[in-house]
């Protein structure tokens, strides 16, 4: 044993479990009067947010909520869900933020599977929640969010308690609980569940702390920024930004619903400097009517994550004054853990080449110990040739604890000491990763692997195209061929032949879509195109 391991033990003075809850405590002490949360007619300082969170935690304690209990919340991006990211863990409980667009059956499953003791819910969801609760066996206390800034006359009361009244039963001097072990759970979030029931992803305090701090470095975020909450806070806990923003004593502007005109108004009014959003949000921004857009007074930094956006989106956003960085991650990795970190050497490149680089997923975040494209069979890294496909594998403190009550799925997802993402990608000579497809989305035509994303990028450059998604269509001769689903920009018509001929300019013949279907694309609440729905349509048409 080394002298460095002798009489140099952990103690309360030199080791404290990491928790993002401490960010709020620090900011309250140092910047108590800085504006923290802004939503319609409401505004709270950081001291007020802290006191509200402590009082709500105290009220939960009085209700009998204990360490390790699950408290669910189904809400829009309003102050209540931001506060829940602190108040619920402050009593030692685990926050379970539920996707606001789920059906009653899936919500029932989540409430039952998560062992929820309390459900905090916006009254607008009264209809779906009433249906969901009919199939839930465990007794759940319901706390209504009564949003005074919207017309609630058509919304029923769901619970016996109301958020503000319940909060005021708490004590602002409550001695809230910090985790005894940073491995303790802080959050439970459910995957999209496109096949079967969704899986419950468990985050710990340590990972949440590290993701929050890593984002600051990766995005060069300054103190006291103005952040517009666009990413739903139920999605990977808003990419962990509720915790990041307290650390930076930022001003957080809440947005109840995605409305591009409203976004431009808030950006203008509050001098917004940063926001995150799925590619679908960027698409809505660039294709918004001119009368809904406002000229930006300053550069606005944007993170986008999800399905890789077409490179043309970056050009259109830049023309409006937005600076976009592409990131990549999963629910299982606390949100984004790859970033397209920009290299100044690329500034002199042609515009198209720069946009192509911006569409890559990039390199690992500062808080990610490993992100490699590997052959899933051999678990060896693929060559850095930009051509050889493998699966993105991830290792680090921002990989989930595991799937709630599902050891088999947990073990399978982390086989070989790496988290298996299911995303197929290549590694370029400079080490930057670029997703080619989900393993289930790759099209195998005549023995050739075709990336649906490559075809989607080609189609998206057509001036009439708003969105495009490509899936495999069964084919008697080739096994599979690409089938494109296209959503057009209003008043900009196009034909199937025009789209295919346009792709012919940049794609090899075997990669061309053999059929093009024009329609509104089905999307999830976070803007991801639901390809499983498109596959169903293809089968019906075959």
From TrEMBL:
<feature type="domain" description="AMP-binding enzyme C-terminal">
    <location>
        <begin position="454"/>
        <end position="528"/>
    </location>
</feature>
<dbReference type="GO" id="GO:0016874">
    <property type="term" value="F:ligase activity"/>
</dbReference>
<feature type="domain" description="AMP-dependent synthetase/ligase">
    <location>
        <begin position="25"/>
        <end position="404"/>
    </location>
</feature>
<dbReference type="InterPro" id="IPR045851">
    <property type="entry name" value="AMP-bd_C_sf"/>
</dbReference>
<protein>
    <recommendedName>
        <fullName>3-methylmercaptopropionyl-CoA ligase</fullName>
        <ecNumber>6.2.1.44</ecNumber>
    </recommendedName>
</protein>
<dbReference type="Pfam" id="PF00501">
    <property type="entry name" value="AMP-binding"/>
</dbReference>
<dbReference type="InterPro" id="IPR025110">
    <property type="entry name" value="AMP-bd_C"/>
</dbReference>
<comment type="similarity">
    <text>Belongs to the ATP-dependent AMP-binding enzyme family.</text>
</comment>
<keyword id="KW-0443">Lipid metabolism</keyword>
<dbReference type="InterPro" id="IPR020845">
    <property type="entry name" value="AMP-binding_CS"/>
</dbReference>
<dbReference type="InterPro" id="IPR000873">
    <property type="entry name" value="AMP-dep_synth/lig_dom"/>
</dbReference>
<keyword id="KW-0276">Fatty acid metabolism</keyword>
<dbReference type="GO" id="GO:0006631">
    <property type="term" value="P:fatty acid metabolic process"/>
</dbReference>
<dbReference type="Pfam" id="PF13193">
    <property type="entry name" value="AMP-binding_C"/>
</dbReference>
<dbReference type="InterPro" id="IPR042099">
    <property type="entry name" value="ANL_N_sf"/>
</dbReference>
<keyword id="KW-0436">Ligase</keyword>
């Amino acid at each position: 044993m080394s002298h460095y391991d002798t009489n140099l033990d952990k103690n309360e003075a030199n080791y404290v479990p990491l928790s993002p809850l401490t960010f709020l405590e620090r900011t309250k002490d140092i910047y108590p009067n800085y504006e923290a949360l802004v939503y319609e007619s409401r505004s709270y300082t950081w001291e007020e947010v802290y006191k509200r969170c402590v009082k709500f935690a105290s009220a939960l304690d009085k209700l009998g909520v204990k360490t390790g209990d699950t408290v669910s919340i189904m809400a829009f991006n309003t102050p209540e869900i931001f506060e829940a990211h602190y108040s619920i863990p402050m009593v030692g409980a685990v926050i379970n933020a539920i996707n606001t667009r789920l059906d009653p059956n899936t919500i029932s499953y989540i409430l039952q599977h998560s062992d929820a003791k309390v459900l905090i819910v916006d009254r607008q969801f009264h209809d779906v929640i009433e249906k969901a609760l009919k199939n839930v066996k465990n007794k759940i206390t319901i706390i209504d969010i009564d949003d005074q800034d919207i017309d609630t006359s058509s919304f029923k009361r769901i619970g016996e308690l109301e958020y503000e009244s319940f909060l005021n039963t708490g004590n602002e001097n409550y001695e809230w609980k910090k985790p005894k072990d940073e491995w303790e759970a802080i959050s439970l979030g459910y995957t999209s569940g496109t096949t079967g029931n969704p899986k419950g992803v468990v985050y710990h305090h340590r990972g949440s702390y590290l993701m929050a701090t890593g984002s600051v470095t990766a995005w060069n975020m300054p103190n006291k920024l103005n952040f517009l909450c666009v990413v739903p806070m139920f999605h990977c806990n808003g990419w962990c930004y509720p915790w990041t923003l307290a650390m930076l004593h930022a001003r957080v502007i809440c947005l109840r619903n995605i409305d591009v005109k409203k976004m431009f108004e808030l950006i203008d009014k509050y001098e917004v400097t940063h926001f995150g959003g799925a590619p679908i949000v960027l698409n809505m921004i660039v294709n918004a009517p001119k009368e809904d857009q406002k000229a930006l007074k300053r550069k606005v930094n944007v993170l986008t994550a999800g399905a890789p956006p077409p490179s043309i989106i970056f050009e259109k956003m830049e023309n409006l004054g937005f600076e976009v960085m592409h990131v990549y991650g999963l629910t299982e990795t606390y949100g984004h853990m790859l970033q397209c970190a920009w290299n100044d050497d690329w500034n002199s490149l042609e515009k198209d080449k720069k946009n192509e680089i911006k569409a890559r997923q990039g390199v690992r975040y500062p808080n990610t110990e490993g992100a490699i494209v590997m052959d899933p069979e051999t678990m060896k890294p693929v060559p850095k040739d930009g051509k050889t496909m493998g699966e993105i594998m991830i290792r680090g403190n921002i990989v989930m604890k595991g799937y709630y009550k599902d050891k088999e799925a947990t073990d399978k997802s982390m086989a070989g000491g790496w988290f298996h993402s299911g995303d197929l990608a290549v590694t370029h000579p400079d080490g930057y990763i670029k997703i080619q497809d989900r393993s289930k989305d790759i099209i195998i035509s005549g023995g050739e692997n075709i990336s649906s994303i490559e075809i989607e990028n080609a189609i998206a450059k057509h001036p009439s195209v708003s969105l495009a998604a490509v899936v495999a269509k069964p084919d008697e001769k080739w096994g599979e061929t690409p089938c494109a689903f296209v959503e057009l920009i209003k008043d900009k018509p196009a034909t199937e032949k025009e789209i295919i001929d346009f792709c012919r300019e940049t794609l090899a013949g075997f990669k061309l879509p053999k059929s093009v279907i024009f329609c509104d694309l089905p999307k999830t609440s976070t803007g991801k195109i639901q390809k499983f729905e498109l596959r169903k349509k293809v089968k019906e048409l075959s």
